[in-house]
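Q: Okay, next protein. This is DUF2530 domain-containing protein from Wenjunlia tyrosinilytica. I've checked the sequence twice, so it should be correct. Can you predict the 3D structure?
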Amino acid sequence: MAKTPLRPAPEPLEANDVAIVTGGTILWFVLFLVQLPFYGWFDDHGHAWWVWTCLAGAGLGLIGLWYVRRRRDAIRRHERSGNGPGNGNGKGPGSGPGAGHDGGQESGPDSGRSGQDPATRG
């Protein structure tokens, strides 16, 4: 059987990470609040850890919310500074292997590239 030719990987999808993490954090905290009045029953049946798991999920969600907000803000700053995704600088989404572009610069034997770092080129 003939092998199927390999195709480049698709670009990663960007989701609204802040909304997703916020929703999950709220859900964990609501579950904690719903279970809290029944703590005695949970404790009597050996399930007190359910209550504390929900509180831990809410706490970790707050850490995750802090992280994704910083990430989102850093991506926005990066794009505003002119270093947006896919600009050929090797940073950001769309600049990895299989991206299908080279940042708008010519490539090939006649491109004039010497293989040196542009910062050290004379």
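A: Here is a summary of the prediction. Helices lie at 17-35, 39-44, 48-80. Confidence is low (pLDDT under 50) at residues 95-118.
Q: Noted. On to the next one.
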